[in-house]
Amino acid sequence: MDMLKNTSRTFYIPISKLDGALKDAVASAYLCMRAIDEIEDHEEISVQLKVALLSGINEAFNSPQVIEATQKLLAPYREVLPAVSMQLDEWAILCPPTAAPIVFRYISKMALQMTDWVQNGWNIHTEEDLDHYTYSVAGMVGEMLSELWLWNDGTKSDHVKSVSFGRGLQAVNIIRNRDEDLKRGVDFFPDGWELKDMLQYTRRNLAIADSYIEDLNKGPALKFCKIPLALAHATVNLISVGGGKLTRDTVLKIVNHLS
Q1: pTM, entire model
Q2: pLDDT at residue 248, as a whole number
Q3: How far is CA 46 from CA 80, 164, 183, in A?
């Protein structure tokens, strides 16, 4: 949980409010995804090494010996990669055995799609390209969560709408991190898009995400999803009037209100 707090503050709060095996499964998934995300976004290692590591993780999480294959792959890069990436095997071990087939399948799939984006230089020119990217790094997270809700207590949810849950949250991150991304030579805005266009795209997906959680019964799935979605709406509203990042006090007020 300390590592999660240090690397994924948005999801630390809702994950910390989960219990038992579901908490372990979701924490495992998010830490694994943060581990590979740090490789994708690493500013110092070469494209060739990123591709080798991400494709290697894809293969490792498809193998019968996930832990051993991951350790062997990453061991030579201890001085280069951040701790969250080097501890990928530990995050995999954290996952409950019966949830592991779900989580590992999505980690493998995400690593493979990230490999393609790294090789192609994150070229986004159309809304279709943007949809593809936001699915690769977040939409499939929504799908995974829907599978975990069902695994945990039989909670059923709309898998199509779940993609917009992840996609909408990622679109908020794209808006928030725009200046940073441009500095490293990456532009996630389709050709000709301005802030208003990305805000419209984001709000459209967040509206579907609202519908996704409206369909959920009371329980841990709804409790989890409400928090990042409320924070996303608040961030979009703030940015649309010229603001930036939510203050810590605002975040706490939103979370406490939902609780």
Answers
A1: 0.93
A2: 84
A3: 11, 32, 17
